[in-house]
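Explain this record to help learners:
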Amino acid sequence: MTDPRTAYRENDVGGATSVRLVVLLYDQLIQDLIRAAHAIEQNDIELRTKMLNHAILVIAHLQSPLDFAKGGKVAQDLNYFVQSLQTGDQSADHGRTSVTRSVDRGGPR
């Protein structure tokens, strides 16, 4: 039996517009990163790894249709963020990754 939350999300995705799908992906990304941050605070390496790996998967789904000609700086910033994750630029600095620091700064400078 599927839990109600999963059933609701599956139904939401099934009838969603492309814009709604992007919003759902961003929502999932935020949830994954929040859970990863909590896992870091709790020193839960397994959960942290799981959440960061899922976040990378979600970001890849966001990156795949990027149109740099139409997307401008937003597309470039998202691409930079994804490339940072994909190249393993996640070195620890007092429990925070370089990617997290990039997000805190508002993206690449």
User: Anything to note?
Assistant: Residues 18-41 form the longest helix (24 residues). Residues 91-99 have pLDDT under 50 and may be disordered.
